[in-house]
Amino acid sequence: MLQYLIILLDDSSTSYCHYNSQSANQLIGLSDLAEGIKFAMKENLMIQFVYPDFDLPTEYKKLIETIDHSKIMPSTSPLIDCADIIIFNNWKELVGITPYSKATCVLRITKEDLFTQKELVKQSISKFSRLNIVITDIESFSEADLLEYKSVISTLGEEIERLYSWGQSPQTNVITDRISLTRMNNCNAGYNNITLAPDGSFYVCPAFYYSCEEDKAAFCIGNLQTGLKIKAANLYKLPYAPLCRNCDAYQCKRCVWINRRMTYDITTPSREQCVLAHIERNESRRVLEAIRKEKTFYPEQDIPEIGYLDPYEVRVDWHKM
Ligand code: SF4
């Protein structure tokens, strides 16, 4: 069921996920913004506004405040004190940062930077109530990189374990989400959220708006004049994703944009996406069991041991089920 409308306020609105946005400015038209808000009200959708790194004209700010919403802003925004979700587009922005206790923070980082800056990332976990880590070049992971990622995730897992033993309860998507989840909690773009872009059209997610012309057209799902038309809408739903519907890496983003880029099929994930998610899943299992040795911790949760990192390797077994 559709629940969220993401509105990109400008072409240069920050990315909050795997894709990169543009640097050129082009604000959404004021009338399109008003229409987008009206659409969300009629459809009973919660709006998430995605901000660029500059201040907005007063009439835009007034209009935004006419509806319930959340604000996603880059850490460089002059309006940062109003942010609900803060995006760090570079690890350097984390150096010496004052702890933000209330906002959720997202660190967008390349694999090389994550590998070289893992101590900084580890130390940053305790500075936020929630730190999401999003890798911006998943498609470039080699087998050696996957091993290195396992080492990074293990370092972060040990930090989570240490903080919990001190009575803190930090959250990070790559470890603690799977500990608390009992079913899939993926991005669900095209199913429970859609995006309104500055061109007045709807897209499955922001990433497709910034894609090549072919994908931009293929994943444009209507506009403010003609309304929403999601082609092959079922394909965005979990039951229509044969590998994912049998998977228990519940924290995985299950990114349909990465699927499209790497396998050309929005329902089929790449090995890289699956192995990263399973490395996180397995570390969540280890952390859960380690904390349980000291205290009662998610007593109902059960993350079974598994012998694979890529669900594709066991697809035959599922086929027989
Ligand atoms: S790990 Fe792979 S199979 Fe599992 S939900 Fe993620 S993309 Fe789908």
Short account of what is shown:
The chain is of the alpha/beta class and 321 residues long. The protein contains eleven helices and eleven strands.
Give an overview of the whole structure:
The chain is α/β, with parallel strands linked by helices and 321 residues long. Helices cover 34% and strands 17% of the residues. The chain is built from 11 helices and 11 strands. The chain has helices at residues 30-43, 58-64, 111-116, 118-124, 143-165, 176-180, 206-209, 213-218, 256-263, 271-292, 315-320, and strands spanning 4-8, 46-50, 69-74, 85-88, 100-109, 128-135, 171-172, 193-196, 201-203, 220-223, 227-228. Strands 7-6-5-4-3-2-1-8-9-10-11 form an 11-stranded mixed beta sheet. Strand 1 (4-8), helix 1 and strand 2 form a beta-alpha-beta unit. The longest helix is centred in the middle third of the chain and has 23 residues, at 143-165. It is globular. The mean pLDDT is 95. Iron/sulfur cluster binds next to helix 10.
Helix/strand class: alpha/beta
Tell me the number of strands.
11
Backbone shape: globular
The main sheet orders its strands as 7-6-5-4-3-2-1-8-9-10-11
Order of helices and strands: EHEHEEEHHEHEHEEHHEEHHH
Low-confidence stretches: none
Distance N terminus to C terminus?
A: 28 Å
Spell out which ligands are present. Answer: iron/sulfur cluster
Largest sheet: 11 strands, mixed
Radius of gyration over alpha carbons?
A: 20 Å
